[in-house]
Amino acid sequence: MDLYEYQARELLEEQGIPTPRAVYAGSVEHVADAAETIGFPLVVKGQAKIGHRGQAGAVKLAADLDDAVAMARDIMPMTIHGHRVNGVLLAEAKNVLHEYYVSISVDRSSRDFDVLATANGGTEVEEIAREHPESVRRLHIDALEDFDLEAATQMAESIGFYHADVDQAARILLKMWRCFKDNDATLVEINPLAKVGDPDDEDSKELVALDAKISLDDNAAFRHDGWARFRDPVVADALEREAKDNGLHYVHLDGEVGVIGNGAGLVMSSLDAVAYAGEDQGSGVKAANFLDIGGGASASVMAKSLELVLRDPKVESVLINVYGGITSCQTVAEGVLEAVAALGVDKPIVIRFDGNAAAEGLATLEKASLDNIHVARTMEDAASLAAQYAADAIAANAASAARREEDEQ
Amino acid sequence: MTAFIEDDAPVIVQGMTGHQGMTHTARMLKARTNIVGGVNPRKAGTTVPFEDADGNTVEIPVFATVQEAKDATGAQASVVFVPPKFAKGAVVEAVEAKMPVVVVITEGIPVADSAYFVELALENGVRIVGPNCPGLMTLPSGEDSHGVNLGIIPDGIVSRGPLGLVSKSGTLTYQMMEELSDIGFTACLGAGGDPIVGTTLQEALEAFEADDDTKAVVMIGEIGGNAEQDAAQWAAAHMTKPVVAYIAGFTAPEGKQMGHAGAIVSGGKGTAQDKKEALEAAGIPVGKSPKAAADIMRGLLADL
């Protein structure tokens, strides 16, 4: 789960990492009060779970209250690369002398934790790595060894922090590590970790986290009260939320063929097969969703899955691809028939069964002899048939819309 | 001898007395896996009746600790069906008892816990398979012996043959086994769909390369991380046996987790296309579907 900047700041502050004074405003009405607490000039920062917010025009410097309110009004309704803005953070403007980048993340290849840092912070790390690869330092924190101030100091030196900043940087690195560990994060990124202050007054200079990105491990939610305090008020997708509440792995996509299967890999493979079939047939139809019913699914889980998938109005046909391991194809067949009867489904459903109780499942479907239930022998055949049905339905819809238009004229 | 574990190796089950543990211990026994004990400190000293492959009742003893179970039975592997909350403790216990092979089926373990026990296992010379995987299945190398089925892979799809299989996904493992059931396997290993796993795709290739009976390897990958690229790089330099791959998730969108904790394309990294290119650059052909990959493998075997 990704956090908003204002939430990430909270976690950094809990560890004592310096951040500029800032107040979150969830709506335009709250901007005036929040701004008065901070004073001017201040930075108005749109809160969205995506980078490049500055380039998208969602981060602006306000000179006075009118400015701040006008900017908040512009920024609040924005959607940045598909991510809706959820409020603004009003932050004290700082005089930035230098920008560093530091992140700690899970390293999947070396199976430990990765510290990535550069003295050339400010922009996205991918860009820094492209433009100044020599400046990017990569260090590891072993999963078994503790990371202490001595190790952090060595790391701060090797990262290339300027001499005057090493001690403070080491303390921040250590606190970042604690933030990462205590919160079961998969990423803690401070960018920029800025040196701010009056250039002529050494005592005023300090390192401050001007922006932060934190991702938390969903698997660890059980030991953090289910991350209740970070529950996102922006409902990403009503179907995705409902699926989650029902313990189903559902991802809403934008195609026309609903896809249900058992096992994440098999479902992903089915999405690909549908897209290839759409390409081959020249219709360009694609999968409308990813839905994994998991292992050993009951008939009611199957029925609920079918109901969810069909609630997407773009869905014109459904592909059900099951390789029964623990899952029984017979149980799946019962669930399909249950849902079809309860919902009065008339859209075409193409089913491919293999493995555990496949013969029984197919016999059950055959016995029901429903016009809209079709059986295919292989995953490729099933995907191809489902794509064809969806394309036919789209063509039929277009034809009837055209007829209606003619009738009206 | 076979890759990963010997035929008829004695096996214990951690979490045997739970619902999952009971169901799958019964299945593993039916598949003629030599299950010799379970671990549950609260039920230590009792036995649990199961039916074996011949329909006879066997009483499987429950031990308080892995160490005790290992000392009493000579177990060479443990299968872990413990819920996520208690999985770290269970796996650490198995590693500290120096259980040679620990297969972790549990899905939903925090990655920090996996990072810890995987590192501990590497330091102790213990092979962890998983977590979040269907397990490890070996086929018997001799007529009088039996393979081991550690986990939830369905029995009876395949028999012994010259192929090795490693996969990040459960059901695609079964699908591929079925596609190549006419040829057969030495071992099928579910590496797991989590960001950090005990046996990576590369480490599975290393084991198959070292196993004389394995003549070629099928590898199934999916979006997320760099395991396929790492395996490709290693294979290009060290692998003498042919490898054929299949990758799932070419049409998966950026930033969306596709079921498995590790199956996510982020910051443009971990795409199926990147993996395909890395594999092909290493001379490893990539099938467009599981069936296409199986057909490529069949062609390669004909030329061996």
Automatic annotation (TrEMBL), chain A:
Superkingdom of origin organism: Bacteria
Binding site for substrate: N262, G325, I326, T327
This protein's UniProt keywords: ATP-binding, Ligase, Magnesium, Metal-binding, Nucleotide-binding, Tricarboxylic acid cycle
Matches recorded under InterPro entries: ATP-grasp, ATP-grasp_succ-CoA_synth-type, ATP_grasp_subdomain_1, Succ-CoA_synthase_bsu_CS, SUCC_ACL_C, Succ_CoA_ligase-like_bsu, Succinyl-CoA_synth-like
EC code: 6.2.1.5
PROSITE patterns: ATP_GRASP (PS50975), SUCCINYL_COA_LIG_3 (PS01217)
Amino-acid positions noted as binding Mg(2+) in the UniProt annotation, renumbered to this chain: N191, D211
Pathway: Carbohydrate metabolism; tricarboxylic acid cycle; succinate from succinyl-CoA (ligase route): step 1/1
GO biological process: succinyl-CoA metabolic process; tricarboxylic acid cycle
Pfam families: ATP-grasp_2, Ligase_CoA
UniProt-recorded Gene Ontology molecular function terms: ATP binding; magnesium ion binding; succinate-CoA ligase (ADP-forming) activity
Catalytic activity line of the entry: GTP + succinate + CoA = succinyl-CoA + GDP + phosphate; succinate + ATP + CoA = succinyl-CoA + ADP + phosphate
Task performed by this protein: Succinyl-CoA synthetase functions in the citric acid cycle (TCA), coupling the hydrolysis of succinyl-CoA to the synthesis of either ATP or GTP and thus represents the only step of substrate-level phosphorylation in the TCA. The beta subunit provides nucleotide specificity of the enzyme and binds the substrate succinate, while the binding sites for coenzyme A and phosphate are found in the alpha subunit.
Name of the protein in its database record: Succinate--CoA ligase [ADP-forming] subunit beta
Organism annotation: Bifidobacterium choloepi
From TrEMBL, chain B:
Chain segments annotated as transmembrane: none
Record organism: Bifidobacterium choloepi
Assembly and binders: Heterotetramer of two alpha and two beta subunits.
Gene3D superfamilies named in the record: NAD(P)-binding Rossmann-like Domain, Succinyl-CoA synthetase domains
Gene: sucD
Domain of life: Bacteria
Metabolic or biological pathway, per its Swiss-Prot or TrEMBL entry: Carbohydrate metabolism; tricarboxylic acid cycle; succinate from succinyl-CoA (ligase route): step 1/1
Keywords in alphabetical order: Ligase, Nucleotide-binding, Tricarboxylic acid cycle
EC number(s) recorded for this UniProt protein: 6.2.1.5
The keyword Ligase belongs to this UniProt entry's keyword annotation: yes
PROSITE patterns noted in UniProt: SUCCINYL_COA_LIG_2 (PS00399)
Catalytic reaction list: GTP + succinate + CoA = succinyl-CoA + GDP + phosphate; succinate + ATP + CoA = succinyl-CoA + ADP + phosphate
Chain residues that bind substrate: Y174
Listed name of the protein: Succinate--CoA ligase [ADP-forming] subunit alpha
GO molecular function: nucleotide binding; succinate-CoA ligase (ADP-forming) activity; succinate-CoA ligase (GDP-forming) activity
